């Protein structure tokens, strides 16, 4: 078999796994490849995509990127906002027994891990990102934030909607916040529509393959200042 043809077969197997979510042994019927070969092809294919597109799509935000995001947030009525954050539970079918306790979701009733759609804020945690000075309702802040839903903690880097908005200002704030978050929700919808593999339980065993990061957000107490979070939300309600 020609080398170029063999490479195409491997890529076809990987794409079938990602796009259609087919089990590994089902690829043998179409591309005549064994289970272990298909798993290796899929892993190498994903690593290759990361290597090729990392510099363009997975790089750290530059100062120009940050300024552009701040302008977009200002246009939507949220000064200092640099995007929206959202997450979803992905069932982990082959979670090792020893880890099932820490990966079992209470409201899901099974082992899952979190897929999160957001620009990573590792630079903010480490203090390397440029500080953002902005004013809301006459009060100055210097920490950029994301719009989030109620699952995220009450920290200054997350601004949630109101569960029971009262008055015209509260209702307008909730409507505007939920409207701005539609972009990241649509992103997850497109992701699940295009890649059926995440609509089905994950079959990998290794956390390094699935991807796992543990940010050191607890190292910076100002990121967990609940009082500042409450004050920022009040000022945003008045501002909008």
Automatic annotation (TrEMBL):
Keyword Signal: yes
InterPro entries: Harbinger_derived_prot (IPR006912)
UniProt KW keywords: Signal
Cleavable signal peptide: 1-21
Protein name, as recorded: Transposase
UniProt organism field: Lithospermum erythrorhizon
